[in-house]
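=== RUN LOG ===
request id: a7f3
mode: sequence -> structure
chains: 1
length: 212
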Amino acid sequence: MKIFNSSSVNFSERMNVSESSRLISECIAGNHAAAGNHAAIEMLIRQYETGVFRLALSIVGDEADANEITQETFIAALKSLRSYQERKTFKAWLYTIALNLSRSHLRKRKVIERLKTTIGGILRVETQNQVTPEDRVIQTEKETILWNELSKLDERYRTVVVLRYLHELPISEIAEIMGISEGTIHSRLHTARERLRDALHSLHGEQNANLT
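=== RESULT ===
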């Protein structure tokens, strides 16, 4: 497996469900040639590695650790691929593995204090519009405050924010990944949004954090 390089990541999860299922089948099938199986595995990793890395990074706050967790996630997933059941999406199943490994990493390494990664790695704001230098300064200030406040949240609140707004997952899928009810997800999102809105309100009188 190649080493994950966060600085060069620019691959989005565009592959459709049927194509993803085909790759999973190819990875599992025992009658495929080794080269073909290897190619399918590489494509499957490329499809999801960005999302897995960002999820891990949002939990552990360190790129090197997130890189390690990303690799561990795919190793664990490939070993358990035959037991994968399509009652939940492959992404939800994979993210559950990544989340569990990230939490385990925190417990073992006690790295919650190291959650100082720049906002660009987690909440990068991409825009096609031209902005003035002043706009960029204001945006950076907002992102810094937002990330600082996000890093202060309990992991249970921070995780739902990352899954909902970074990965744009539906509430039902977040509930599957975290193993809790949809009602609890809604409650945690509400609490997190209120705290983040308060943080942005303190900057230039902003009325909300654009989290809806």
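=== NOTES ===
The helical segments are 17-28, 34-60, 63-79, 90-109, 133-152, 155-166, 171-178, 182-201.
The chain has two domains: 6-113, 118-201.
=== END ===
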